[in-house]
Sequence to fold (170 residues):
Amino acid sequence: MAKRRYLGGVALALMLACLLPAGATPPTTAILGTPPQPEWPALSASQKKILAPLENEWARMEHVRRKQWLTTASRYPELSKTEKERVQKRMHDWVKLTPEQRARARDNYREINRLPDEQKDLIKKKWSAYKQLPDDEKQGVRERHKSAILLAPPQPSPAESTDTSLPVAQ
Fold:
């Protein structure tokens, strides 16, 4: 029985070898990713002007990040003056962040994007209320970490959390 299976395997291998052209290599899997993006000197004058805050970071940036910033630069001329100022401020702020802070910001963005629309709306309302606070009150909220508390899901009240129907482990 084992001899018969062995011979069957050899016969199958020979048939496959005859079907494939000589020297043919098996297909490889495609690598998906962002193709290389231009280095800083290769950018146009308008791109350099728009992305100027990122010049010192450009050489260390991943291709996907470069592509994202180049997309922002391509949309930049159509933005309103207020939006342009916001983009420039965000670039200046981004450059000041450490790699760890940038990673945390990206993670926070991803987490918020996964939330249901109702929770996103609640966060937007709370953020809007926070932005309208005077600077000294904003500082107080940050110092007391209330921004994190405000955005956390509501905790059950003590009356709700005491359930006598569950057995208590001893």
Notes: The radius of gyration is 29 Å.
